[in-house]
Design goal:
2 domains; 2,3-Dihydroxybiphenyl 1,2-Dioxygenase, domain 1; 4-stranded mixed β-sheet; 3 helices
Length: 152
């Protein structure tokens, strides 16, 4: 019966700052907002596909949360440069400063992490067309691609 997640919501401390980040920096189309109620909504994947709601709250009500945006594999190849060109610091899952993204072998998928202005941990994730290999755990993307070329 469930075919996906239609919406998720985040509490933020400064709605205008978050509006700028999600609309201008990340490029999400603004769907609707009510300043008097302290909310703003954004379409994800086009109108009617999925939605992100932001709600301005007192800082004591803003707890760090995490969610991931699905992106194409082609876009993932440029995601780090795209985010860093917009002044957003990126990290891999291990946050190990090696400058390489990792593949989750059980999916398989590659991802990059970054924070919004309130410290929510966001992620771009792209599914890979390869067979899952959960026994590998997590491996650097370049190593995963080498193994795919060699049919390992």
């Amino acid at each position: 019966m469930i075919t996906g997640i239609f919406e998720t919501h985040l509490n933020v401390t400064d709605l205008e700052r978050s509006h700028h980040f999600y609309e201008t920096v990340l490029g999400l189309p603004h769907a609707y907002g009510q300043k008097e109620r302290g909310n703003s909504f954004y379409w994800i994947g086009g109108k009617g596909n999925a939605m992100l709601g932001l709600w301005q709250k007192d800082p004591s009500e803003v707890k760090r949360q995490h969610f991931a945006f699905h992106v194409s594999l082609e876009d993932m190849k440029h995601a780090v440069a795209h985010l860093e060109n917009k002044g957003i610091k990126t990290q891999n899952f291990l946050n190990d400063d090696i400058g390489e993204l990792y593949v989750f072998g059980w999916m398989p998928a590659v991802s990059v992490y970054f924070n919004d202005p309130d410290g929510h941990l966001l992620e771009f994730i792209a599914m890979l067309p390869d067979e899952a290999k959960p026994e590998l755990g997590m491996v650097p993307w370049s190593q995963w691609e080498e193994m795919q070329e060699k049919n390992i």
